[in-house]
Specification:
This protein has 279 residues and is an all-alpha fold. The chain has two domains: 37-55 and 201-270, Helix-hairpin-Helix base-excision DNA repair enzymes (C-terminal) (Endonuclease Iii, domain 2); 62-197, Orthogonal Bundle (Endonuclease III, domain 1). The chain is 51% helix and 0% strand. The model has no long low-confidence stretch (mean pLDDT 93).
């Protein structure tokens, strides 16, 4: 008896199933929950014993916040303050005075209460004049054209230089709108949205990145830019401001890049830098 030959239909292979792509952020959070339960609340509570529980208060007009943040890029906050004050003097406006509330996460002394610069005049100023105005902040040759390009893009998109409309957008949509502007990255956009509108976005600077890596809040190889999305998923909205301020303050006062003061760290028992096997 001969065995019947398989039909073409029977021999046709089924298409291989595509493996579902793993979301690295969700996978990391599941791992933390499984291997290091309560890490996030324990870290926030521990930092609060040393740095308190900061409460959000609007810091500046959002356009001023944006330009001030550009001035802080690769510069000390106190130098950025001097550059911004110089910008006010060089391009005065008749707008109402704004009050700068620096808070604990700020590394400068705060700005004087004064009107913001005339942004139209800043945008159209001869480049050498703007370079000279922001010279106290450092990197003035690079930042002056960046500031003018940002102001120009905002005006072309919106008809003026106001960024107040961002407060009505969902956080990620607002961040995406800002980061389409050349020279404005995720950190700069997050600074503006957190400090002006209390949006739940944690700006990840070198201090936040270092402290978070050492404790083990974020994976060892995650760069600062990618870490923004880990914090967005990790924290409840009401925790974002406190987390940013206390992590940055902890990095400046205790968890230094060199010779961190681990003996006085309130989260040392949960820190993987102190103990690679910390729970």
């Amino acid at each position: 008896m001969t065995t019947p030959r398989p039909t073409a239909r029977a021999t046709k292979r089924r298409p291989a199933r595509r493996r579902r792509r793993v979301d690295p952020v969700k996978a990391w959070l599941r791992r933390l929950e499984r291997t290091r339960p309560n890490l996030v609340p324990d870290v926030l509570d521990g930092l609060a014993t040393l740095h308190g529980r900061p409460t959000w208060e609007r810091r500046l007009d959002p356009t001023s916040e944006l330009i001030l943040t550009i001035l802080t890029q690769n510069s000390a906050d106190v130098n950025a303050e001097q550059a911004f004050e110089s910008l006010r003097r060089a391009f005065p406006s008749g707008a109402p005075a704004e009050r700068h509330v620096p808070g604990q996460g700020w590394g400068g002394v705060g700005l004087s209460e004064a009107p913001p610069p005339d942004w139209a005049a800043v945008e159209t100023a001869p480049l050498p004049d703007l370079v000279e105005a922001i010279r106290p902040g450092g990197l003035h040759n690079q930042k002056a054209p960046r500031i003018q390009a940002a102001l120009r893009r905002i005006r072309e998109e919106r008809g003026d230089h106001s960024l107040e409309f961002l407060g009505a957008l969902p956080p990620l949509e607002a961040r995406a709108w800002l980061t389409q502007i050349d020279g404005i990255g995720t950190k700069t956009a997050s600074v503006l949205l957190l400090f002006c509108f209390d949006m739940p976005l944690v700006p990840v600077d070198r201090h936040v990145h270092r402290v978070s890596h050492r404790i083990g809040l974020i994976p060892p190889k995650v760069e600062a830019d990618a870490a923004h999305d880990y914090f967005l998923a990790m924290l409840r909205p009401e925790q974002a401001y406190e987390a940013h301020v206390n992590l940055i303050r902890h990095g400046r006062l205790i968890c230094h890049a060199r010779r961190p003061d681990c003996a006085h760290c309130p989260v040392r028992n949960r820190c993987r830098f102190v103990d690679p096997k910390a729970p």
